[in-house]
# Entry
Amino acid sequence: MKKVIIAALALAPALASAQTLGNLETLVRSIGRLVDIALPIVVGIALLAFFWGLVKYIFAQGNEESKADAKKIMLWGVIALFVMVAVWGLVQFIGNALGIQQGQTITVPTVPGL
# Structure
């Protein structure tokens, strides 16, 4: 709840037309660039986790405890990949449904007559 109040207070001057949303747009673009850089790294880490579990499973011949541990690692790697791809697809779907293309400039809505 505190985060919502802080966000609302931070955006209050922009809503009162006392401040332009230029800084907010810059912040959104910076976060977008950060996500664009971090996403392939995180997907790579999830793939490494899956393959690490696969290697552990292959080398755990006869040791059931090690096999169970390797299966858990592989399962969490697959779950992480699934969640990342599903969220990415959902964001793309919502963006296309709202007519927002990647890299497109954001137009700030205005109130007519003010």
